[in-house]
Amino acid sequence: MTLSASSPVGIFDSGIGGLTVVKAIQALLPSERIIYFGDTARVPYGSKSQVTIRKYAQDDTGILMKYQPKLIIVACNTVSALALDVVKRAGHGIPVLGVLEAGAELAVENSRNNQVGVIGTRATVLSNAYPLAMNALNPEVEVFSAACPLFVPLAEEGFIDHPAAEMIAREYLLPLLDHGIDTLVLGCTHYPILRKMIAEIAGQEVRIIDSAEAVALKSKEMLAGNGMLNGSQCHVFPHLLVSDLPQKFKSLCELFLGKDIPDVELIEV
Ligand code: DGL
Fold first, then answer.
1. Both 110 and 200 in a single domain?
2. What is the average pLDDT score of the chain?
3. Best residue among 14, 21, 118 to mutate for probing ligand 1, ranked by most atoms within 8 Å of CB
């Protein structure tokens, strides 16, 4: 396979949550051609077993590989936590970046008191992958985690500043804040949709780390390092592949991407 700077960047997630990563990449690297696969037929991954998540990760990577990407971004914390090795193997040497590693690194860099909070899906929190990644970088960091399963449907319903969402968020976040964290990782690609509300509850003292923004920064660094940045001045719309077209697809896309809908292709998994 011949890769060049004009090859696309492949991105996948369990559904459309990873469009927050697409948005961050577009903001930072507007010339990159993006192929995005959202496994909308099988979302959510966060409540599935490890065996199933690893099987899905293999399928998702296989779909992106058909487009010969120069970089694969795992825009799903759950897959990054439980199946990054599967993606690397199926990627046959193509560089792979996971949102989790990028988010963990940025959190460790930003924390001043080494007390870091992480919120994510049940599978991500149970995997312990964030504490492991952060402690590998700095053993002094203490990590407090909370699974926030209701955040995914709240984000998808657009309950961005709804009082019900705020009540649930307080329930999830206050125990973490009691530990005196100064940094909070949004360890699920759906959560940036709720960022404003989460940041208001966390207060000004707590720095919010968006794993989507973190992986965009890391992608730029990696592509530049490999001489693979696309130098073209053309801005192309991302190409979206989905395994199902949910009824709310258009409004969900707008919510996550904040723009007109790019071209969408329905594929079988
Ligand atoms: N986008 C997924 C993640 O980042 C969460 C949604 C799901 O459970 O599939 O973990």
1. yes
2. 94
3. 14
Write the burial class of residue 165 (CB in 10 Å: 0-12 exposed, 13-18 middle, 19+ buried): buried
Q: Are 179 and 141 members of one domain?
A: yes
93 and 225 housed in the same domain: yes
pTM over 0.85? The answer is yes
| Number of alpha helices (DSSP H) and beta strands (DSSP E) in the chain | 11, 10
CA of 220 relative to ligand 1 center, distance in Å: 23
- pLDDT of res. 27: 92
CB 66 within 8 A of CB 41: no
pLDDT of residue 246: 79
Residue 97 in contact with residue 211, Cβ under 8 Å?
A: no
- pLDDT of residue 248 exceeding 70: yes
* Residue 76 designated active-site: yes
Length of the chain: 269
Q: Which of 76, 97, 127, 213 to mutate to test the pocket of ligand 1 (most atoms within 8 A of CB)?
A: 76
* 32-76 pLDDT tens trace: 999 999 999 999 998 899 999 999 999 999 999 999 999 999 999
CA-nearest residue, atom 2 of ligand 1: 76
Structural domain ending residue among the three candidates 211, 239, 255: 211
Percentage of the chain exceeding pLDDT 90 = 84
Q: Is 253 a catalytic residue?
A: no
Atom of ligand 1 nearest to the CA of 47: 8
Q: What is the distance between the alpha carbons of residues 42 and 44, in angstroms, rounded to a whole number?
A: 6
Q: Is 162 annotated as a binding residue?
A: no
For residues 206 and 226, membership in a common domain is answered with: no
Is 22 inside any structural domain? yes
Q: Which residue among 148, 188, 234, 253 is the active-site one?
A: 188
Structural domain of 244: 9-98+213-266
